[in-house]
Specification:
Keywords: Coiled coil, Metal-binding. This is Glyoxalase. Belongs to the methylmalonyl-CoA epimerase family. One of its GO terms (molecular function) is metal ion binding. It contains three helices and eight strands. By secondary structure, it is α+β, with helices and mostly antiparallel strands. The protein has a single domain, classed as 2,3-Dihydroxybiphenyl 1,2-Dioxygenase, domain 1. An eight-stranded mixed sheet has the order 2-3-4-1-5-8-7-6. The chain is globular and about 45 Å long. The two termini are 15 Å apart.
Length: 139
């Protein structure tokens, strides 16, 4: 299984302010902006490209139920997760199971860009929120 850094997710309070920072200071480009009210997401997302790398800026749309809102309340703004692109998500999940690494099963989904993703249980990753993803339509 190959693992390649796909993107870094950053929790922010104000998406417009954060986009301006990434555009004006880091010379980033806004690739997409969308809102997801799916359970367990409830965020507005801006996808930025900075120096050939992808950054997802994540702002909560519901301060009661959004996991991004909970993250900000508990830990503050900043790096929320690191995502790794895997060759085959199904195969990667089998490998995780064989190694005793749990996932947050309710996070398994396909996003607006056709990316299949799931989050690993932070209890098994030394507290880091890690996303595994693949792009089945691009294979």
């Amino acid at each position: 299984m190959d693992y390649k850094l796909d993107h870094i997710g950053i929790a922010v309070r104000r998406l417009d302010v954060s986009i301006l920072f990434y555009e004006n200071v880091l010379k980033g480009t806004l690739l997409d902006r969308y809102r997801s009210e799916a359970k367990g997401v409830e965020s507005e997302i801006a996808i930025m490209e900075v120096g050939g790398n992808r950054i997802e800026l994540l702002a909560p749309t519901n301060n009661t139920t959004s996991p991004i809102a909970r993250f900000i309340n508990q830990k503050g703004k900043g790096v929320h997760h690191i995502a790794y692109n895997v060759n085959d998500l199904d195969e990667a999940l089998k490998e995780l199971e064989n190694k005793g690494v749990r996932t947050l099963e309710d996070t398994l989904r396909i996003n607006n860009h056709g990316r299949r993703l799931i989050y690993l249980n932070p209890a098994d990753t030394n507290g880091t929120i890690i996303e595994y993803c693949d792009y089945p339509d691009q294979n």
